[in-house]
Amino acid sequence: MTTPEAREKAVLEAVRKRRELVNEAIPEELPIQRPERLYEASRYLLDAGGKRLRPTVLLTTAEALANVDPLTVDYREFPTLDGETIDIMDAAVSVEVIQSFTLIHDDIMDDDDLRRGVPAVHKEYDLETAILAGDTLYSKAFEIMLETGAKPERAVEALEILATTCTKICEGQSLDVTFENRAEVSPEEYLEMVEQKTAVLYAASACLPAILLGADDETIDALYGYGLDIGRAFQIQDDVLDLTVPSEKLGKQRGSDLVENKQTLITVHARSQGVDIEGLIDTNDVDAVTEAEIDDAVAKLEAAGSISYANETAQELVEQGKARLEVLPDNEARDLLCEIADYLIERGY
Amino acid sequence: MTTPEAREKAVLEAVRKRRELVNEAIPEELPIQRPERLYEASRYLLDAGGKRLRPTVLLTTAEALANVDPLTVDYREFPTLDGETIDIMDAAVSVEVIQSFTLIHDDIMDDDDLRRGVPAVHKEYDLETAILAGDTLYSKAFEIMLETGAKPERAVEALEILATTCTKICEGQSLDVTFENRAEVSPEEYLEMVEQKTAVLYAASACLPAILLGADDETIDALYGYGLDIGRAFQIQDDVLDLTVPSEKLGKQRGSDLVENKQTLITVHARSQGVDIEGLIDTNDVDAVTEAEIDDAVAKLEAAGSISYANETAQELVEQGKARLEVLPDNEARDLLCEIADYLIERGY
Question: Which PANTHER family match (chains A, B) (predicted)?
Answer without folding.
Answer: GERANYLGERANYL PYROPHOSPHATE SYNTHASE (PTHR12001), SHORT CHAIN ISOPRENYL DIPHOSPHATE SYNTHASE (PTHR12001:SF85)
